[in-house]
Write a structure and sequence with these properties.
The protein is of the alpha+beta class. The protein has 2 domains: 1-29, no CATH class; 44-291, q2cbj1_9rhob like domain (Jelly Rolls, Sandwich), CATH 2.60.120. It is built from 8 helices and 10 strands. It has helices at 5-11, 22-25, 53-62, 74-86, 113-117, 122-132, 277-282, 285-291, and strands at 65-68, 102-106, 136-146, 152-155, 179-185, 196-198, 221-222, 230-234, 239-241, 250-259. The strands form 2 sheets. A 6-stranded antiparallel β-sheet has the order 1-8-5-10-3-2. The protein has a 4-stranded antiparallel β-sheet with strand order 4-9-6-7, with no helix packed on it. Helix 3 (53-62) crosses helix 6. The longest helix has 13 residues, at 74-86. The N and C termini lie far apart (44 Å). It binds 2-oxoglutaric acid.
């Protein structure tokens, strides 16, 4: 007789899940398992010279990411870099002993129009509408400066539920996008500055990486973009950050978006006592929609 309960279920787990309980509930709470640091050569992703919304939306579904060039001007890049340098108090507190300089400041949308402005450039909204339909929102964001010695292993940001091996394959199966992040880069990326890396198509694994650095024979590729460019990627894409081996710091701003069924990491606009009158007065209808209460179909 087939054994029931947790022990029986564990026996039927895919080897990647052996020893953890992810499949017992169906919920995945893991971003990666084991050693997922990539140590090999890093090819670059192709760089689009122009933005084509249809190609970008197709890219999000097929490859898991798209690149939107030239969203910020040189002046805007400098403005945000200065903001990141001057905010958050003395630098010493961000020197993490035995690791690296790691300054990550949460975006304060309630009081900071600079950060609000990064939530809704038409190019990004266009792509997000193709990913989520009408029901999506901003759930959070951060400004992030990282220094020499910083690297991240390959992981997913959020993958609400895993699928059995081979259950999903392109183009027969469209895996819904639940969450996506826009990375605004404020540097001309070089390999020694520790670029973000992505494994194109790895969302079709439909599980977090486990002691591995490739999917379907495809390894990590570096997001080698210019200051002012954005890489938008889905949260179930396997991605990482290469080692910063330089003496320079890398500047990057994140905006996290999600389907409306997700919660927000800050008070919604309707709870207006948390918001500054200046920001409330300046919000456009679209920004209110993105920063407001999650709307449901
Ligand atoms: O800093 C990077 O390039 C990657 C950041 C990342 O992977 C994350 O925030 O999950």
């Amino acid at each position: 007789m087939r054994e029931c309960g947790a022990a029986g279920l564990r026996e039927r787990l895919h080897p990647h899940y052996a020893g953890n309980v992810m499949r017992l509930t169906g919920h995945n709470e893991n971003r990666s398992f084991g050693d997922t640091i990539y140590r090999g050569e890093l090819p670059s992703l192709p760089y689009p010279e122009r933005f084509d919304p249809s190609e970008a939306i197709e890219g999000m579904h097929r490859d898991g990411y798209c690149i939107i060039p030239g969203l910020l001007s040189k002046e805007e890049v400098q403005h945000y870099r200065t903001k990141m340098e001057t905010g958050g108090g003395p630098d010493e507190q961000y020197e993490v002993e035995g690791w690296c300089f790691n300054k990550q400041l949460a975006s304060d949308y309630m009081h900071d129009l600079d950060m609000v402005r990064l939530t809704d450039p038409p190019e990004i909204i266009n792509v997000l509408e193709g990913c989520f339909g009408d029901y999506f929102q901003v759930i959070g964001g951060s400004m992030w400066i990282t220094g020499k010695g910083r690297a991240m292993g390959i992981h997913v940001d959020s993958l609400p539920f895993p699928l059995p091996p081979g259950a999903a394959s392109y183009p027969e199966f469209t895996i819904p996008i639940f969450m996506a992040t826009a990375h605004y880069y404020l540097d001309d990326l070089t390999l020694d500055l520790g670029p973000t890396t992505v494994i194109p198509g790895s969302h079709y694994a439909a599980r977090p990486p486990s002691n591995e650095t490739s999917f379907n024979g495809v390894g990590p590729h570096a997001v080698m973009v210019k200051a002012g460019d954005v890489c938008l990627f889905r949260s179930d894409l396997w991605h990482a950050a290469a080692m910063n081996t330089s003496d320079r710091r890398r500047y990057m701003i994140q905006v996290h978006y999600a389907h409306s069924t997700f919660g927000k990491w800050f008070p919604q606009v309707e709870w207006d006592h948390y918001w500054s009158p200046e920001v409330l007065a300046a919000l456009t209808p679209r920004q209110r929609k993105l920063l407001g209460r999650p709307r449901h179909p």
